[in-house]
Amino acid sequence: MIAVLSTLVCGVTLLLAYVNKARCAVGPFEESGRSVIFDVIKDSDVCYSDIQYLWLGRGIDHHVFPYITGGITPDGLLTGGAVEYPVLSGLFMWIGGLGSRTDADFLWHSALLLAPFALLTAYLLARMAGPAALLWAAAPPLVLYAFHNWELPVVATAVAAFYVMTVLTRYSLRDRAIAAAVFLAIGFCFKLYPGIFVLPLLIYVLLGEHPLREKRFDVRGALMVAATAIGTVVAINLPFALAGYDGWRASITFQQLRQADITTNSLWYWGLRPLFGPTQEAESTFQDVVSVASPLLVLASFALACWLGVRRYRLSGVYPWIGVSGAMLCGFLLFHKVHSPQYTLWLIPFLVLLEVPWSLVVTYLMADLCIGIGVFRYFYALGAGNPYLLEQNLVQVGVWGRAVLLAVFFFLFVNAGARSVGRVGVPGPESLALGPVSADRHIAPPARTAA
Fold it and tell me: Across-strand partners of 29?
């Protein structure tokens, strides 16, 4: 019943999300199909979306199939059918553009294409975590970001992987993990981040999921998980790479060239950039530092999360692969040079599935609202030449509030119990796949004895 309710509530929220973005997508239209009103109110009325913005400049308005043609210029300008996202996102952009003559058509068609993934996510989360799934279905981020970019399919693939591992326990661990690896690899081909969850998944398979049994390392199973993920990614990307390597490679080059600037909402811009001077040389030095420090810190956070998971495994007998995955995502969001507002949708499933204090969840959502609304009002004030101190402070509250809470969640996720439904007493595979049960339900395994 709660799964149906969560899905219905999600449908209402999606309707509100579309109405919010559609305020920027009304006639009259320019010859290019762009809504005249878009550039006038997109920031002041907080109805901007990447979907509507990218109607122009990526060949979507001309229905150009992505990646096969085009490339990227030395200064980072995409040409032809090249887009800045992995191939499945580019494919969805193209499908959404079919039959569209204006950016309003494109927004509507894209919303129809994306909405089922949000509904599926609501249903699966409710099956795993019960009423907590309403955090996904009814919270402000879905209104703000459901149709801001192409995030809903990638979130659905990650949640599907968690569902396979935690609910379909009648199948063997290997079979479930291989299926989950396929979902994570598909997610990687949408927006990359689910691919990092393959590492804790294969560690989970290697170590096993039953704390009361003698441990035997399943090396073959772990290798099968890795091979499945890699093979799926290759199978999806290879046709595009062969048909148009320059256009396919352009999406990777674009992200490599992207800089930590005022549009990225990262701690690099708001924390580190003021320490450098105002000159162009200082800006260049700053970007060079970020290009080295950001990936190093992201990788270090991944290693720390996996190590914390191993430490937890030694205490509970089960490797908390979903908790470790959440911690890795926190590390990525914290240290990556780009932290777009809609990335909050990536994090919410972990806040639903793992037992973290609701007070922290609400505080994070408030910080996110400061970004989701404040950053566009800030851009409007700057562009209009208006006083912007209030808007700038609102953005900084959001940036630093999210950063602090991501650091807190990093450690909480690894040790959190599961908000699983109907599991009380001795933990079964459903709760263990999410992580160790919370302390008030934990029954320690007996000490090992000699054979």
Answer: 35
Two structure tokens written together for 451: 């054979």
Mean pLDDT of the 345-352 span: 98
Q: Which residues on adjacent β-strands are paired with residue 35? A: 29
CA distances (Å), origin 145, targets 6, 150, 159, 163, 283: 18, 9, 18, 23, 31
Strand ranges (E), 57-157: 71-72, 78-79
Q: Could you tell me how many helices (H) and strands (E) the chain has, helices first?
A: 19, 2
| 144, pLDDT greater than 60 | yes
Per the domain annotation, does 50 fall within a domain?
A: no
Q: Is residue 120 part of a domain?
A: no
68 inside domain: no
Report in angstroms the alpha-carbon separations of 78 from 59, 71, 190, 241, 254. 10, 6, 19, 16, 8
Query: Position of tokens 């890699």?
Result: 230
Q: Three-state DSSP class for 35?
A: strand
412 contact partners, CB below 8 Å, separation of at least 6: 354, 356, 360
Instruction: Specify the 3-state DSSP secondary structure of 84.
Output: coil
The answer to whether residue 292 sits within a structural domain is: yes
> Which domain range does residue 324 map to?
260-451
Phi then psi dihedrals of residue 78, to 5 deg? -75, 140
In this structure, are residues 364 and 351 in contact, taking their beta carbons and an 8 Å threshold? yes
Summarised one tens digit per residue, pLDDT across range 26-47 is 989 999 999 999 999 999 999 9
- For residues 361 and 341, the answer to whether their CB atoms sit within 8 Å is no
**Measured between alpha carbons, how far is residue 223 from residues 119, 310, 328 in Å?**
33, 18, 21
Q: What's the pLDDT tens digit per position in 241-250?
A: 999 999 999 9
Q: How many CB atoms lie within 10 A of CB 224?
A: 18
pLDDT tens digits, 55-95: 999 999 999 999 998 899 988 899 888 999 999 999 999 99
Can you tell me the distance from the alpha carbon of 220 to that of 210, in angstroms, rounded to the nearest whole number? Answer: 18
pTM greater than 0.85 (yes/no): yes
Q: How far apart are CA 328 and CA 346, in angstroms?
A: 12
Tally of domains within the chain: 1
